[in-house]
Amino acid sequence: MLHKITSLTVRDVRFPTSVEQHGSDAMHTDPDYSVAYVVVDTDCGLKGFGLTFTLGKGTEIVVCAVEAVAGLVVGKSLQEIVTDFRGFYRLLTSDGQMRWLGPEKGVVQMAVAAVLNAVWDLWARAEGKPLWKLLVDMDPKQIVSCIDFRYITDALTEEEAVDILMKAQEGKQRREDHMLQEGYPAYTTSCAWLGYSDQLLKQLCTDALKSGWTKFKVKVGADLEDDKRRCRLIRQMIGPDNTLMIDANQRWDVAEAISWVTSLAEFKPLWIEEPTSPDDILGHAAISKALAPLGIGVATGEQCHNRVMFKQFLQASALQFVQIDSCRLGSVNENLAVMLMAHKFRVPVCPHAGGVGLCELVQHLILFDYICVSGSLSNRMCEYVDHLHEHFTSPVVIQDAHYMPPKDPGYSCEMLESSVQRHQYPEGDVWTLNMNK
Fold first, then answer.
1. Is 352 a catalytic residue?
2. What average pLDDT score do residues 71-78 get?
3. Does the pLDDT of residue 308 top 80, yes or no?
4. Per-residue pLDDT tens digits for 349-374
5. Average pLDDT for residues 292-297, to the nearest whole number?
6. Which of 133, 219, 311, 423 is the catalytic position?
7. Would you call 305 a catalytic residue per the annotation?
8. Contacts from 151-154 at CB under 8 Å and sequence distance 24+?
9. Which position among 352, 391, 402, 423 bears the catalytic label?
C-alpha cells in the first residue's frame, strides 16, 4: 500500500464524433467526444488511470487545470492518501489560491475528478479488485471517512450516512450475487440523437429491440413539431409498454419547458431531462410541480456542479431522478455524498453515462448504490451509449440490456495506448491526417 506516486501525466484525447452527429442534441450540435486522460505512476510500477469527459474544444483548459493540481499529488503514497481520503479530497478542492477558480465547480472540479479517478483506480488495482467491489467490501465508517461533509450537514450528517450504510448491510450479499448473475438495468440513448435521420432512428430502434432493450431516451428541444414527430415515431417503434424518456439538454426557459413538455405528454415520457439551466434549482422545482399531474418527472445532474447543488435540488423537491456523473463531480468521494443524500430524500439515482469512458466509470458507482445504499431497483436504471468502448482495456459488458459487473481490478478507465496516441490532440494521426481541425 505504500506505492509512492512519482509522476502524473495528462493528455488531451479527442474523437471526431461530430462527423456522424453522434452525441448531438439541442444545445451541443457538433460534439467531439474527448477526455483529459490522466496516468499516475508509482515507485513500484503500479499505475492508476483516470479521466474527465469533454466535448472537444476546451479539453486543453482541463489539461492545464490537471497540471496545476498535480503538485499536490506527486510525492504522496497511496497509503497516505487513503488513510485520510477526506483530507486529501479537501487538499485538492480547497487550495487557498486554486479554489478561487471554483470553488468545487467547473473546470477545476473536473480536473480534480480526473486526478481522483486515477487515484481510486490505483487503490482498486493495489487491492486487486474492481472499484465497485473495493467499495462494497469497505466498512461503512471507512466509506463515510472518504466523504467531505462540509456544506451538507444540514441535509446529511456523518452519523446519518453511517446509519444508512449499516442498515443496508442486511441483504447485501444477496444483492451482490443478484448483480453478478443478472447485472444492473440500463437504458439506451444511442438510438435517437438529434442529428440522426428517421431512417437511422428506425434501424437503431429495431436493432435495439432485438437486443433486449426496453428503455429508450430521445433528444428533444430544437423544434416542437419535429419533436412530436420523432417521439411519435419512437413510441410507435418501441410500443406502449416500453419506457420512453426525453432530454432537452438545458434548452428552455421555465415556462417554455412546462409548455413544451406538456405538448409531448401524449407520448408518456417517464422524465424530462435537463429542461432548463442546470443551475436553476427553483426553476426545476417549478417544472417538477407543474408536470407532476401529468406523471412526468424531472431528471438532472450531469452538469450539476457539486454536492451542495444536489443538496438544494433534493431539499427543494426539484428533481425526481438524480443523475450523477463520474467526472463532473469530484470523483467517487463526492458521488458517494450525493448517492447517500438521494437515498435519504428517497429519490432514485439514474446515472448519466455515454461519452468517452463514462459508462466504464459510472457502472461501478451504481453497483455500489444498489448493493450498499438503496437496495432497490425501483425506477432505477443507468444510461448506456454504444460509442467508443473499443478504446478501453476493460470495456463495459452489456447483456440483455444490463450492465454486467466488471471483473478486472481498477476503475475500468485505462485506455489502449494505441488509441490514445492515435487520437491525441492535435498531433495524433486522426487529427493530423484527416481532420486538420
1. yes
2. 97
3. yes
4. 999 998 899 999 999 999 999 999 99
5. 98
6. 219
7. no
8. 151/307, 151/308, 151/311, 152/307, 152/308, 152/311, 152/337, 152/341, 154/311
9. 352
